[in-house]
Amino acid sequence: MLFFSSLLSGFALSIGLTRAQATDMIGLLNAGTAVGRPVIGILSDRWSQIDTAGALTMLCGLSCFIFWLPATSFGLTVFFCHHLWGYRWGLLDGTLDPRLVSTLHGARSNTTTHRL
């Protein structure tokens, strides 16, 4: 997440936003993650974890092309950070990391595989 946060603030500066606005993007991304993790957990419990991870990964990729590339204003960048990307960032921590690794590799190798 640290890598993406630095890219996001650099992107905000490159489109002409102020340093304060670029820093706000990181906070909004984290706020979206706090909301997104429980929602993604509920979706993973309702449907299978692999289906949820696949669908949300596709939505993350599409949102990058639809909202991030044409973003030139503070409002659209906030929408992308908080509502689209921040909510789905919980996908990486809540679904893909521990659950998906243990599903694919078995619970025995979860610790070793997750740390790589």
SSE series: HHHHH
Rg over CA atoms, rounded to whole Å, is: 15 Å
Beta-strand fraction estimate? under 5%
Termini separation comes to: 16 Å
Sheet having the most strands: none
Overall structural domain count: 1
Q: Catalogue the unreliable spans.
A: none
How many E strands? 0
Q: What would you call the structural class?
A: mainly alpha
Chain-averaged pLDDT = 76
Number of helices: 5
Query: Percentage of helical residues?
Result: over 70%
Q: Which overall shape is indicated by the principal axes computed on the Cα atoms?
A: elongated
List the helices and strands and how they pair.
Elements: H1 2-14, H2 19-46, H3 49-68, H4 74-105, H5 110-115
Helix pairs in contact: 1-2, 2-3, 2-4, 3-4
Give an account of the 3D structure:
This protein has 116 residues and is mainly α. The chain has one domain (2-115). It contains five helices and no strands. It has helices at residues 2-14, 19-46, 49-68, 74-105, 110-115. Helix 2 packs antiparallel against helix 3 (49-68) and helix 2 runs parallel beside helix 4 (74-105). The chain is elongated. The model has no long low-confidence stretch (mean pLDDT 76).
